[in-house]
Design brief:
This protein has one domain. 70% of the residues lie in helices and 4% in strands. It is built from 15 helices and 3 strands. The longest helix is centred in the last third of the chain and has 32 residues.
């Protein structure tokens, strides 16, 4: 008990405050999206925030070596859950990706991202650097990545599969692999692009084509992007005011409490509101990179930390790029801001791991 108290004292509470404040922004926007009347949504989101914060603090005080020792066991457990969700899971919005646990819908495809990061960090930490010229050793980590990616694509969930692949490439890069590996992968990807295009479902192809000219189908596939751009643009510098957004409250803006919550933020709080949230995300990312630049950090902690913060930062970047029409709409929520239990829990768990590794680094001084 005394050890737990000592670890709680070593937690970077300013870092925790920034994470909490970002999630509180999400609560404020979801309150506006529901006009404060959908109490079940507000209560659900509030409880998920509290569970996530508690989970983050619990993980923070657990020795980081525990997560390293059990990385592969955790991975295989969630692979089983992912298989179960893909075959027997709850069907919603055309995808079978949720497991119903006593009324709580869990999405294993979100939580598996942390498991992949942990497993890759453990593998590349234990693999000797001198062996990295032999690409046969990459078979195991590639399987670690491709098995869940294949299951996620089968659900289907192109956005999550894409972010898993992207984070995995970042981890492969920071683990010390040469540019030859990435050049080979890139060349191979270009060759099979026509085949991959044929595997996409019609609505996925339409989303990509709509990116280049959403006005071609303003009431169909281009509707989401057009309404999102109108909402953000109409906010101006200072916004229309909290709960006074017309695009969102007149139901022109779709998925306003999930994928397009950033658009509603832009409409109600304007440029200053959006740039403040972007700044908050950048500050959290920068503070994490400062933690990871500690000279005493080992390879496992470094890879784990970069994987976790890359998952957070690039998911935010993709979501914001998506709602302003730079990238196709792929269904990625804005981290800690959008409504969604599994997604929010994943980010809180990731930040808990970063706090845990920071405590372990501070203990070495």
């Amino acid at each position: 008990m005394l050890e737990v108290i000592e670890k709680l004292k070593k937690i970077d509470w300013f870092y925790v405050f920034l994470i909490f404040f970002l999630s509180f922004v999400g609560f404020v926007m979801i309150y506006s999206a529901t006009s404060g009347m959908e109490y079940n949504v507000l209560f659900s989101h509030t409880m998920k925030m509290l569970v996530g914060m508690i989970a983050m603090l619990i993980i923070a005080v657990v020795d980081i070596e525990f997560w390293k020792r059990n990385a592969f066991y955790i991975y295989f457990f969630f692979i089983i859950l992912l298989i179960w969700a893909s075959i027997f899971g709850h069907l919603g919005k055309g995808s079978r990706r949720w497991i119903n646990i006593s009324g709580f819908y869990m999405q294993p495809s979100e939580l598996i991202k942390i498991c992949i990061i942990l497993s890759l960090a453990k593998f590349f930490d234990e693999k000797k650097i001198k062996d990295k010229g032999d690409y046969f050793f990459l078979i195991f980590p590639i399987i670690i990545v491709l098995v869940p990616v294949g299951l996620i694509l089968s659900q289907p969930d192109l956005g999550t599969a894409a972010i898993v692949l992207f984070i995995s490439f970042i981890i492969f890069y920071i683990s010390g692999l040469s540019w030859k590996f990435f050049t080979t992968i890139g060349f191979g990807f270009l060759i099979i692009t026509p085949y991959l295009w044929s595997l996409l479902k019609n609505y996925q192809k339409q989303r990509i084509l709509t990116l280049f000219n959403p006005e071609n189908d303003p009431l169909g596939s281009g509707y989401h992007i057009i309404q999102s751009q109108i909402a953000i643009g109409s906010g101006g510098t200072f916004g229309k005011g909290w709960m006074k957004g017309t695009q969102s409250h007149l139901d022109f803006l779709p998925e306003k409490h999930t994928d397009f919550i950033f658009s509603m933020l832009g409409e109600e709080f304007g440029f200053l509101g959006t740039i403040s949230v972007i700044g908050l995300i950048i500050v959290i990312t920068y503070l994490t990179y400062r933690i990871l630049n500690n000279p005493k950090i080992d390879n496992f902690k470094r890879i784990l930390g970069y994987g976790v913060i890359s998952n957070f930062f690039f998911a935010a970047l993709i979501n914001m790029s998506m709602v302003i029409g730079i990238l196709p709409v792929v269904g990625l929520p804005l981290p800690l801001v959008s409504y969604g239990g599994s997604s929010m829990l994943t980010y809180f768990i990731g930040f808990g791991l970063i706090l845990s590794l920071k405590i372990s680094l501070d203990s070495k001084y």
